[in-house]
Amino acid sequence: MPFALYPSSLQRSKCIVKPTLFIWTTILIGLLIIFNSAATALSFQNSPHLSIENLKKSMEWFTAEPHPMGSKNQSKLAADLKQTLNQFGLLTSEIKFKATIPNTDSPQFGGLQKDAFLTKEVTGYNIVSTIKGKSDCSVLIGGHYDTKYFKDFKFVGANDGGSSTVLMMELARVLKKNKFKENMLGSCNINFIFFDGEESVLPNWIDGENILKLQDNTYGSRDFSNKLTKNKNGKYIFEKKPIHLILIIDMVGHKNQELLITKGSHSEYSKLFIQSSNKIKIKEANFLMEDDHTPFLTLSIPLLHIIDWKNTEEWHTKKDTSDIISYEAIANFGESIIQFLSSKRI
């Protein structure tokens, strides 16, 4: 009998083990599928210089679908971006933040949910990628990677959001291989900050304040600037290094590119940047703008804000597609940034 019972016990054991193994295998496969769908690194040409092909590939990825802050598309894009920058060998992280935004499901804003609240809370993702330098300073290069929400048409933001994003990605890849002398700007830590939520949810920049008493713009840059701390010498720091300069870029890829350094930018660095720019049209502008640089203006940190505010015909329309983009113009601007980073620190 004991012998007769043994195979029966073994069979029962197998019956338990097989489903258990099947369940765990299914779970692991499911997790792998979820992980792969959540984050896909882009592949690039391994060129030592800014690559037109890489910029085009990044733009195709960026403009595949609209991706406003808080959307599933934006969460996926943030994961892809982080994975890609990690693949470059950069120290990359995401800084999550909560934001209260106008609720477009509300009938007041054209939504169809009768009982929807006027506001809702969403999660934003600032993506931060760092190239370690040998000097005790940081240079922040920032731009937004969200697209503006439009109910009535598909807005993919090739210039407004896309151009700065693809350039920053390609700059991060190339600058990882560059070596700068110790007194140069590029010898600082170079921190690329991809800001979420620059765009307003409501049609106009100030609608949120007028209707809801809510600042409906620059969510990511405001959150980032509010979290900056000072060292014992009273200097704002990032990753334990004093911030020497902040460079904010936006709308830099139009085929008729004419770049402006807006009012509020550091005068000496503005002139130095223009001197470093041989292949692009760029000049100082005598007007203020609100953009992702605005939250930093009160922090007494040298700052440059560069934008093309001459070519706005396609701005915030369905025509802001890759058709209006010059990848050569983006690359030439990128070369100017590299040349600028090769300048001595002021």
Automatic annotation (TrEMBL):
<dbReference type="GO" id="GO:0008270">
    <property type="term" value="F:zinc ion binding"/>
</dbReference>
<feature type="transmembrane region" description="Helical">
    <location>
        <begin position="21"/>
        <end position="44"/>
    </location>
</feature>
<dbReference type="InterPro" id="IPR040234">
    <property type="entry name" value="QC/QCL"/>
</dbReference>
<dbReference type="Pfam" id="PF04389">
    <property type="entry name" value="Peptidase_M28"/>
</dbReference>
<protein>
    <submittedName>
        <fullName>M28 family peptidase</fullName>
    </submittedName>
</protein>
<keyword id="KW-0012">Acyltransferase</keyword>
<keyword id="KW-0808">Transferase</keyword>
<dbReference type="InterPro" id="IPR007484">
    <property type="entry name" value="Peptidase_M28"/>
</dbReference>
<keyword id="KW-0812">Transmembrane</keyword>
<dbReference type="GO" id="GO:0016603">
    <property type="term" value="F:glutaminyl-peptide cyclotransferase activity"/>
</dbReference>
<keyword id="KW-1133">Transmembrane helix</keyword>
<keyword id="KW-0472">Membrane</keyword>
<feature type="domain" description="Peptidase M28">
    <location>
        <begin position="126"/>
        <end position="340"/>
    </location>
</feature>
